[in-house]
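User: I'm new to structure prediction. If I give you an amino acid sequence, what do you actually give back? Let's try with this one:
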Amino acid sequence: MIDPIVQNFWSQIAGRHDSEAFAVLDAAYREPHRAYHGWGHIVDMLSKLDQLSALAVRPDLIAAAIFWHDSVYLTREPNGHPRTDPENVRDSVLLFERHSRFDAMEQAAIHDIIMATANHMKSKAKKEHYPGFSGDLDFFLDLDLSSLAVSWPVFEQNLENIRFEFHWAPEQDFYLGRTKMLESFLGGGDKLFRRPETRALWLAPARENLQRAASDLNQKMACSA
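Assistant: Good question. You get back a string of structure tokens that encode the predicted 3D arrangement of the chain. For your 225 residues, that looks like this:
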């Protein structure tokens, strides 16, 4: 069953896609190797976009980027070689463009918003596709990281879901990779969230979760060493 928030936002942009687009997305977000990067993540982002829509200049384009940004998500290749986030982001953009019927400016804007997830902390708008585009890109990135600010039990479950997606990785390697990621987010300081409005909502609980999770992972690495 498709969540009403998904139906609501898709209805606003369906006409700017080909007839196969939603079926492609639905199949992708139901893939059995996904646990965190499925429809739940998309619903969470769309729900927050809906609640905070006053922060967006083009919420329709942000919604399109939300729908497509994790449309390709693999943690390893069929030959077992680990796959990087930038590779998934690149292929997600290509899949979007294959099914897009947006005009040239809109498609370029969505392309750049999705590509920004390849390097969350360092990405910035390279071109102001429309007045307010850079703010929309920042808002999208904040929405994508807003799950860092959830309650601790949900945060723990999210980590477990990501561990499921990397079930093939040795325990020590997974813990080390996650710890580096958490510490990189902590190293962003106040810039973890880019918009002052989202920073006020999410920075404090996110930093608390990140510090707690990093400490827990360090303990697990010590115990499994």
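You can read the tokens as a compact description of the fold. Here is one thing that stands out. The two ends are 43 Å apart (CA to CA).
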